[in-house]
Amino acid sequence: MISQLRRRFGQEPERTRTGESEAWLEDCRRREVTALWREGCIAAGLCDHIPTASGWTSAVPRIGTIVRTGDPTVFTVRLRPGQLAADVLAAAPRLLAAMGMSELRVSDLAPMWVRVTLLAGAVSRAEPEGPAPSVLHHLRPHGTRLAA
Questions:
Q1: pLDDT tens-digit map of 57-71
Q2: What values do phi and psi take at 72, rounded to 5?
Q3: How far apart are CA 47 and CA 39, in angstroms?
Q4: Nearest Cα to 138, choosing from 125, 117, 121?
Q5: Alpha helix locations (H) across 9-118?
Q6: Could you tell me which of 72, 1, 90, 91 has the C-alpha nearest to residue 33?
Q7: How many distinct helices (H) and strands (E) make up the chain?
Q8: Which of 66, 73, 140, 60 is nearest to 105 (CA)?
């Protein structure tokens, strides 16, 4: 009974069919990308803090469609009013740290919509250099940056 409830509410994969198990794993990956994106946006200051009856909430740029999970992870984002793709690029170091990735690319799709590509890349222990380029950001462990 408990295992049926867990399967019903998405807490346990269906073990009898491979396709359903893979779909469950993909759903978990999508939820993880969404949660990490939200945390990263809050940490990077890409959110608006909105007062509600029960306290404050944070409104972040919302993921529209997750095109691909894995490496690279590709998804579309609807920006908050007044935000630009350059704002996402400026927040890239914090977003990358929150999402555990090493490279972020942002391209305009339509007004208020951007396409975000995240790459895991190879881990490097290079010494910090000058600021990262404005169109492509690299972040390595311990906050070191590499130019493209």
A1: 899 999 999 988 878
A2: -85, 155
A3: 10
A4: 121
A5: 18-44, 85-90, 92-99
A6: 72
A7: 4, 7
A8: 73
SS3 67: strand
What would the pLDDT profile of 25-42 be if each residue is shown by its tens digit? 888 889 999 999 999 999
Q: List the chain residues with pLDDT less than 50.
A: 1-2, 4-5, 14, 123-148
The C-alpha atoms of residue 17 and residue 62 are separated, in whole angstroms, by 32
Contact 139, 126 (CB under 8 A): no
Could you give the CA distance from residue 36 to residue 143 in angstroms, rounded to a whole number? 18
CA 89 to chain centroid, in Å, comes to: 13
Task: Give the orientation angle of helix 92-99 with respect to helix 18-44, to 10 degrees.
Answer: 140
Long-range CB contacts (within 8 A, 24+) of 65-73: 66/30, 66/33, 66/34, 69/26, 69/29, 69/30, 69/33, 70/29, 71/119, 71/120, 72/117, 72/118, 72/119, 72/120, 73/33, 73/101, 73/117, 73/118
Is 62 strand, coil or helix?
A: strand
